[in-house]
Amino acid sequence: MKHLLKLLDCSTEEIIGLLDLADQLKYERKNNITHHHLEGKSIGLIFQKSSTRTRVSFETGMYQLGGQALFLSSRDLQIGRGEPVQDTARVLSRYLDGIMIRTFEQKEVEDLAEYGSIPVINGLTDFCHPCQVLADLMTIREKYAVLEGLKMCYIGDGNNMANSLIVGGLKTGMKVSVATPDDYRPHSKVLEFAKDFADFTLCNEPMKAAENADVIITDTWASMGQEDEKEARMKVFKGYQINDELMSAAKEGAMVQHCLPAYRGQEITEKIFEEHAHEIFEEAENRLHAQKAVMVTLMKDKD
Ligand code: CP
Ligand code: NVA
Fold first, then answer.
1. Ligand 1 near 60 CB (within 6 A)
2. Fewer Cβ neighbours under 10 Å: the N or C end of the chain?
3. CATH of 7-129+286-299, one of 3.40.50.1370, 1.20.140.10, 3.40.47.10, 3.30.230.30
4. Model-level pTM greater than 0.85?
């Protein structure tokens, strides 16, 4: 693996390898075992959108691995004033050992990888959120010990999270069911990938999608950059909520995941959120371990 731009680029073996390493790094962290795998290395964290989890988990993760992380807000970088990403990539490649970028267009992330000469990690685009979904898969596997054969159900907007969950779920052998309003389906590239899997279903009926699911997942109805659409979206997504009724369609004891931030009373009720808070915050913690696995895999010197 040279980069983590999207899960569509990753093989099943690569994804499972990252999850295994994440489990190991989590075990080491819990047992105060320190390995400075990235001593002397620097990663730049470019943010064109807000972040709590991604920023803090990358910064502390890199510190725990013995390296340093530089927070680079696009408000301060020349990229925010129009310097081309192609030039930014070639400059940063001469200072840094890796780049994480959170931005709007997937193309910007792909260009950064193409023009630069160091590993690039996608920290969220409008198209996908691979780091988050690695943490989700890790958390699901912690509960059930396997992924293969489990049913994952995603309810809500066919956004970056939906796209990555579909790809990550199917690549690791999960059954994936998705319910979105007709005009808010996942990306056509993702549906093209998913069409070859018998265990993939897409509909506009949340109760149907949730039937017999082992894990139910949702995300905000209005993602970063869609603030202007918020009012309209509140109406369209009204029935797409994780609540008691929806959970009654899932398997007894089914898990709930949410990438956060969560909007209680919209995509999830307060009650369901709090009942599953232990799983949701474990998922948030696992961002740290999963991203450390990504950084070690991409940035550690090969022996
Ligand atoms: N889930 C997630 O990516 O959170 P942040 O936006 O806080 O980084
Ligand atoms: N879909 C959300 C995810 C936030 C982590 C967004 O893009 O804003």
1. no
2. C
3. 3.40.50.1370
4. yes
